[in-house]
Specification:
The chain has 375 residues and is α/β, with parallel strands linked by helices. Helices cover 33% and strands 16% of the residues. It has two domains: 194 residues, Rossmann fold (3-Layer(aba) Sandwich); 76 residues, Rossmann fold, CATH 3.40.50. Strands 4-5-13-10-11-12 form a six-stranded mixed β-sheet, sandwiched between helices. Strands 8-7-6-9 form a four-stranded parallel β-sheet, with helices on both faces. The protein is globular.
Length: 375
C-alpha cells in the first residue's frame, strides 16, 4: 500500500488541476489550491500515535521526508461546567495547532526540494514553521507584527530563522515577505501553498475517530486565516466520501473578535467573500486577520454545514478565559477562550440546543500570552 494516495492539486474556484510533484503556490486565478487523493484506495488509519496515522490522506509520498516532533492525537477533554468537549491543541510541539500545518507543510516542501521558506505570521505559525524548518535543515524568513506574543518571537529567533518585526498587522507583514520572494524563498503564507491545510485537517479526522467514528453536532473554531476550519470541513467531506461517516455533518462555527470580524460581517450578509477589516485589533492575536485569503472557503464551509459565525468582544473573551481556568483548571489561549464565549452566546440564543454534543478547539497554550490582564 503506497504511503500517500495523493493524486493531484486542484483549484476549488476555477477547477484547474496541477501536478502535485511540483512546487505550487496559488492558482493563476488567485485562488488557494487543494490537495486531492485517490480515496478509493484509502483504508482506515493505523496505530501511529501522531497525525501521521492518516498518511494515506496526507501529501508526503516517501516517509523518509517526514519532519516530525510527535505532533497530533491531542486529547478531547470534557469541560463539565461548559458541557463541551475541548480538543486541546496546546499540547502539540511549539504549543499550538500551527505545528500540524508546519509538520505536513515542511515535510512536503522538503520532498519537493524546497531549500528556504518565507511567511508572514501573527506569531504561532511562524514559530512552528521556523522550528520545523530548522529540523529539516531549511532556511526560514519570518515576518510578524511587533505586537505579536514575545514567546513566539523567541521561538523564531532561537530556531536560527531570520525574524522581521513589522509595524502593523499580518497583511503588512505579508507585503514585507512579498518583497523578499525574489531571493529564492518559497512562499508558505496561509493558503499560499496547498499543504498546510492538510496538516490542519487532521484535527477533523481525530475528532471523529476519537468519538468512535461519529460526528459531534457542532464544532466551534476560532477563525483568523481559517485554515483549520477549511481543513476540518475538507476532512469531513473526505470521510463522507470514504464511507467512514454518514448523515449530517457537524455544524461549523467560526468565532471572531468584535475587533476583527470580517467573516462574521460577510456571513451576516450571506456574502461569498469578506471585505478588508480596517483598524483590526484583538487580544486574541491569532485571529487578528483583516482579510483571509481563503474567505470564500471559510464561508462555504459554514453554509454547507448549516453553521454560523459569531463575534465576541475582548472583554468577554478574557473574562471567560479566567472563568474557565478557575472552574475547569484549564488555561485556554485567548482564541480558545473565544470559543467558550461563543458557545455561551449560542446556547443563550437557542442555536445550540440542549443535549447537543459540542467540540471546541483550544488552539494553543494560554502561557504563550503572558501579558494579558484579567478582571
Amino acid at each position: 500500500m503506497p504511503f500517500s494516495q495523493l493524486s493531484h492539486v486542484e483549484c476549488p474556484k476555477c477547477g484547474s488541476t496541477f501536478d502535485a510533484g511540483e512546487q505550487q503556490n496559488l492558482c493563476s486565478c488567485g485562488s488557494p489550491l487543494l490537495a486531492r487523493y485517490d480515496l478509493a484506495k484509502v483504508t482506515k488509519p493505523g496505530d501511529e500515535p501522531t497525525l501521521w496515522r492518516y498518511h494515506q490522506v496526507l501529501p508526503v509520498k516517501d516517509p523518509s521526508n517526514i519532519v516530525s516532533l510527535g505532533e497530533g492525537m491531542t486529547p478531547l477533554i470534557r469541560l463539565d461546567h461548559e458541557d463541551v468537549l475541548m480538543k486541546d491543541e496546546g499540547l502539540i510541539p511549539t504549543g499550538s495547532f500551527k505545528a500540524r500545518g508546519a509538520a505536513v507543510g515542511v515535510s512536503k516542501a522538503k520532498e519537493l526540494g524546497v531549500k528556504a521558506i518565507a511567511m508572514p505570521t501573527n506569531g504561532n505559525a511562524g514559530a512552528a514553521w521556523a522550528l520545523y524548518a530548522a529540523r529539516a535543515g531549511m532556511r526560514a524568513v519570518i515576518a510578524m507584527p511587533r505586537d505579536a506574543p514575545l514567546i513566539t518571537r523567541d521561538e523564531v529567533e532561537i530556531s536560527g530563522a531570520e525574524l522581521i518585526l513589522v509595524d502593523g498587522v499580518i497583511s503588512d507583514a505579508g507585503k514585507v515577505i512579498a518583497d523578499r520572494l525574489h531571493e529564492g524563498l518559497f512562499d508558505v503564507a496561509t493558503l499560499k501553498e496547498p499543504y498546510r491545510i492538510e496538516g490542519k485537517k487532521t484535527m477533523g479526522y481525530e475528532i471523529v475517530e476519537q468519538l468512535g467514528w461519529k460526528c459531534p453536532d457542532v464544532i466551534v473554531y476560532p477563525t483568523g486565516g481559517g485554515v483549520g476550519l477549511i481543513g476540518i470541513h475538507k476532512a469531513l467531506l473526505e470521510m463522507r466520501e470514504l464511507g467512514w461517516i454518514s448523515g449530517k455533518l457537524p455544524r461549523l462555527v467560526a468565532v471572531q473578535s468584535t475587533g476583527c470580524a470580517p467573516i462574521v460581517k460577510a456571513f451576516s450578509r450571506q456574502a461569498k467573500a469578506a471585505e478588508f477589516w480596517d483598524n483590526a485589533w484583538t487580544a486574541a492575536f491569532g485571529i487578528n486577520v483583516p482579510k483571509p485569503l481563503g474567505d470564500f472557503l471559510i464561508l462555504e464551509a459554514l453554509y454547507d454545514t448549516g453553521g454560523t459565525a459569531v463575534a465576541v468582544d475582548d472583554e468577554r473573551i478574557l473574562a471567560d478565559q479566567a472563568d474557565v481556568a478557575r472552574r475547569e483548571g484549564v488555561h485556554l489561549c485567548p482564541e480558545g477562550a473565544a470559543t467558550i464565549s461563543a458557545v455561551r452566546r449560542l446556547r443563550a440564543d437557542g442555536w445550540i440546543r440542549p443535549g447537543e454534543q459540542v467540540v471546541v478547539l483550544n488552539t494553543g497554550m494560554g502561557i504563550k500570552y503572558p501579558t494579558h490582564k484579567h478582571s
